[in-house]
Amino acid sequence: MTQGEKQLDHSTLTAARLLWDFHRLGHCVVPADGILVFGSNDLRVATRAAELFHQGMGKWILFSGARGRMTQDWPGTEAETMAQVAIDAGVPKSAILIENRATNTGENIRFSRELLAERGITLHEGLFVQKPYMERRTLAALEVQWSDISLQVTSPPLTIEQYVAGHHSWDEVIAAMVGDLQRIIDYPSRGFASVQDVPASVLAAWNDLISLGYTSQMA
């Protein structure tokens, strides 16, 4: 825990784990036409995409993302930076597509669709790779905004403790999960995403975390 972080007691950690488990889908990954990676500040997502490519889970990888609030100081866009991680992991450049304009999930979907159409690539089955706590929100968006494909969503296979260790602060990850659950709840009425069934225990944990001040990523 870094200086200035909120103290994590047992109940707070339990609430955080409930949100973590809800956000992750547990899809059993099977081969798809291609692998699509939406913008991220966590390069382990790109490493996971490269692993899946080498396992034969997709013929190509599309990386989508410009720069965001947490990546504005990167020398390249999120898509370009993640693509380089994949190349360093042995993915051929010829198997990589880069979309570097998107700044949110809706644009990730829109611009990725446009890029595939421009390249004459028809996507029937997509394997989407995200941060663990963004799996469900990504699925919900795709079910509405890219509803004509078969899709699965996966992420680096990490516990919340493994995800935080050496990479992120607890405050950052918990606040992100709280904000993503707000969007999961609010976005269906705005036409952005499908309705997700949120268990009462998850809602209670979410409200507990809000009351503790983990609200920096809420809209």
Q: Which labels suit this protein?
A:
Rossmann fold; 43% helix; 5 strands; 219 residues; 11% strand; 8 helices; alpha/beta; 5-stranded parallel sheet
Task: Tell me what the structure shows.
The chain has 219 residues and is of the alpha/beta class. It folds into 2 domains: 10-23 and 159-211, no CATH class; 34-154, Rossmann fold (3-Layer(aba) Sandwich), CATH 3.40.50.620. The protein is built from 8 helices and 5 strands, in the order H-E-H-E-H-E-H-E-H-E-H-H-H. Helix 2 links the parallel strand 1 and strand 2 (61-64). The longest helix is centred in the C-terminal third of the chain and has 17 residues, at 170-186.
Short summary:
By secondary structure, this protein is α/β, with parallel strands linked by helices.
Average pLDDT for all residues: 94
Oligomer designation:
single chain
Strand portion: 5-15%
Q: Which overall shape is indicated by the principal axes computed on the Cα atoms?
A: globular
**Overall helicity:** 40-55%
Tell me the structural class. alpha/beta
Number of domains: 2
Going by CATH, the homologous superfamily of the largest domain would be HUPs
**CATH class call of the largest domain:** Alpha Beta
CATH domain fold name of the largest domain: Rossmann fold
Give the CATH architecture of the largest domain. Answer: 3-Layer(aba) Sandwich
Q: Gap between N and C termini, in Å? A: 26 Å
- Main sheet attributes: strand count, strand direction, barrel closure: 5 strands, parallel
- In the predicted model, the low-confidence regions spanning at least 5 consecutive residues are none
Strand order of the largest sheet: 3-2-1-4-5
